[in-house]
What does this fold into?
Amino acid sequence: QITTLINHKDKPKRSDKTLQAIQRVGQAVNLAVGRFVTVGEAIANENHELKEEMSVACIEARRAGETIAQLTDVASLDHPESDSHITIFTDKTGVVKAARLLLSSVTKVLVLADRIVIKQIITSRNKVLATMEQLEKVSSFQEFVQIFSQFGNEMVEFAHLTGDRQNDLKDEKKKARMAASRAVLEKCTMMLLTASKTCLRHPDCESARINKDGVFHRMRLALEQVIEIVTDSRPNGENEMAPISIYSGIREFKNKVEGLRENLYFLSKENLSTMLEVILEHTEDFTDSAYTSHEHREHILELSKQAKMELEQLVSVWMQAQNQKTKDLMEDLEVAILKTCQCMNELKREVHNAATSLAADLLKYHTDHMVLKALKITGVEGNLEAVAEYTCKLSEQKEQLVEMCRLLRHVSGTEPLEITCIHAEDTFQVTGPQIISAAETLALHPSSKIAKENLEVFCEAWESQLSDMSLLLREINDVFEGRRGEKRVYLSLPRPGKHNANLKALKPVKLDTEEQAKIAKLGLELHLLTSDVDSETEKWEDQENEIVQHGQGMSSMAYSMYLFTRGEGLLKTTQDLFHQAEIFATEGTKLASALHALSDQVHDDEKPLLLLEAEKLISMCKQLQITAKASAQGKSATFTKVDACILKTRNVMTLLCQLLPLCCKLLRKNKVGNGCLKPAPPWKEDRIRTGTNARTPERRVDTLGIKSLENHVTNMTFLESK
It folds into this structure.
């Protein structure tokens, strides 16, 4: 909204309609700042060490918001009676200054609030660590029950705080690391419970002690990693050295090779040779692996040899082209670039096939969990020899699965999936020995129910990780085949190529700055209309009403189109916008059907008006669909199509603003459904806290075991009877 105010065209005259729109934006900014500052002040009152800094920043923000509202107030401007057009701002520099002050003070508030959140997480972690130390030292069941109950509550608090933080992380890599650490903590909480109980029951058993120590150690590492992510730091100032995968190496290598088309001098031949050497060194993880098939190994070696030859040829032509740029040499260079990239693509596909076929075979082979079942049976029988035999088999299985994770990491395709592979590798590495120590404990104490329960918990963790690997393999294949991107699909935004076979031939285009400026006014109007629609839908008591749901969905999609006019949001290209416009029109047609259904239930003088508006809505949605599906060749035609789509969307939203109150009125009169209007809340404070907004779908990050933790805490009473 601030950007819209600052970037408006400085024309000497503007219509009343435009002036009123800008006044509404100014007021909206001031109201938003007021709500924001109220939260900031509440945070300041709860955190005395930062109260003064926070209060000053809040006062500055409030003052700037009020200044913007005053400077965009129609009443404060001159209105020449002889002219229907009026001056937009008497002092634009004042708005610029106020906007700068506002952004500066809002940033201060956010940074201070962020420091408080980080402090809360660190404090919560410290509480958990202190209680863990107590748990390690307990010697009686009664004391353990009391302390574990406290530990469970502290872990629930930590899970909530870190879950919120995970939601707020923008870096997908950090988000994946946080999810992995929280998953470890969730699973280890149950392991800690049974391992500690086993140790208390069998205090002289060495394998039980090893089992328990392993759980505590892993939990401490996970807690430390969460703090590293939150504070963006490493112990002893170390830099994180992420292992380079074959995929990322090939991607970077190809980018450099293709860059030669634009610039023959931006890198040296030694750089390219080194990059290829690193990639080929990583392929040795496949060729040296005992689990890679002979066929895959031969193909990888052959393609590695070919890649070296193609690069030699490329370097030869490249060096000649640097000295003499003839047409023939440039054509030879283009051929060499294409052949090198093609060879790298084939190598990429070969390592992908090698890794995924191995993973599919291993997961299928181990799906029956025969070794785990045998360990449970032989443990209960107290058969130490048989347990030793099956622990050897489990160790072999662990090595296979660890190797599978290492190879999958090379072909995972995205950094978050790479991290998931590393997490899976660590899980198999740690859980395997823990199952073995739990099985040995049971074999030594075959009648111990708690030792049996402990082995069950560790086996379940292993089975769960195998199940997760099947999902991970599917995701890796989806990324490779282009069926999945790193971004989540937003609302009903379709995946490219899914709804229209002709779309594949069209090249996605982004708008440049000048084009964005041209449609900024339309975008602003669309934004204001989404606010109006949201405001209308909030008045309905029955939020499950079909009309409300369609209205909210359309508002959400219109808002994403508004963000597109700003160069923001998940609609990145014009093709994305056209997809969204089609779905928006489809949603509008569904709303029209709901209006017809409503008209059959009501008896009122305004019923004909409702039917007329419904028909108008159908017609407008059809026009929008036709526009969105029409082909557009060239930059000018594409921009015209974008402009038309947003204009038609705006017209539909204008009609929707009229329809919603009309439907509400008819429902109220005829008492159809479960009611319509709800009483207006005295203050929208709740919305600040809950963030309920139709166009901002709640980000649902799995709480990673908060429910499980709560269950552990509430089900502790059985221990006292032991």
